[in-house]
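Course exercise 7: structure representation. Students receive a sequence record and must write out the corresponding structure in token form. The form below is the worked example handed out in class, using ABC transporter substrate-binding protein (442 residues). Read each field label carefully; the graders check that inputs and outputs are placed in the correct fields and that the protein name is recorded exactly as given.

STUDENT ID: A-19
EXERCISE PROTEIN: ABC transporter substrate-binding protein
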Amino acid sequence: MKLSFKSITAALAVSGVLATVPLQVQAAEEQFVPLFTYRTGSFAPLGIPWADGKIDYLKLINERDGGVNGVKLAFEECETAYATDRGVECYERLKNAKGGASGFDPQSTGITFAVSDKAPVDKVAIETVGYGLSQSANGSVFKWNFPLLGTYWTAADVMIQDIAKKLGGEDKLKGKKIALVYHDSPYGKEPIPLLKARAEANGFELQLYPVTAPGVEQKSTWLQIRQKRPDYVLLWSAGIMTPTAIREAQSTGYGRDKIYGIWWAGSEGDVKDLGQVAKGYNAITIHNTGESKGKIYDDLKAHLYDKGLESGKDTKGSLAYNRGMVISMLQVEAIRAAQEKFGKGQHMTPEQVRWGFENLNLTEDRLRELGFDEMLRPVKTSCENHMGDDWARIIQWDGNKFNVVSDWYQSDKQYVDPLVKSEAGKYASEKKITPRDCAAES
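STUDENT ANSWER:
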């Protein structure tokens, strides 16, 4: 039974702590979710639908369910324009807001790097779905980081697997040339260690082509590609860099069907204006293609769209919008998992939400209840594994839309796990972190 404000006031007055009423009432009635967004800048074509999807799912939880077990979600956007300094400013301003942040999704590898040292001190989780520090999958070292559903190492590995499948087997990779055209930033450099390990093991030549931000000038890069003639190109881009790369590929005669874009380069906004120019372009995705169907969209229509409450009037149903919803769903389920342990229907502290991220268990049945069964495969996290289960598929642009053209892949642990272990170990040594004993904690 919910007490009235007068009842609470009277009770607190008796105990002599009347001054704390505003904080106590706020903490009991809402859970704060900060939202880093970039609706401006060169990455805006990706950032806008991404932000819309995140917000609309949080709105849905409030409108349909009245919050998480009755605890309403409060949220606030903070525009970063993908700039690391602005992201750090957002983090510092929001980490203690409204009872404490229920985790941060920085939406930037650079910002993630910058706040990962702060998170253990501030005791707040960093949620990086499909990006961030790839070695942070190791939860014994990275207690506060959660690269859920996959990392740039798992993505790069799946791309190589799909190329090998097209060639007729991994042994056919030997002697091939594979190029990485990447945004010259922490984001673009992340897959390099995995690709180097794969190149050494599989005998292919790895060519590296950094592109200066924002990526509008790539002529010299693609002239080099025309000269060096790689068999395949992996594209680590976002925003304006992606359509620029595809146009340059066309101008130099490089087949778009030989290009694989990372998931941030695989949204409709990247290719819809190119139409047939981009036909054959491949991308990787951690969920199924952007389609506005299924239970989740039925609920959105009934509780948001029909009432004119949606943020994404022009973005709903797109790949990036759906990915934003997935991110917020994982955030909400972490809060829900925390409530199951620490108090159903209560406000959760940032530390309790961190426990929720570490104990996610989204089974097929649970995904069906949530309406995400057509988008995602099951995922479960643990103390040791902060990524959970990585599943990915390849999609291809047919000139009008993206189509799924592969089965579900998982990364090959023989290549990914040693990197996670070694790089996490180096990080622990550099930062003087004593790894957790997960066996003892369980």
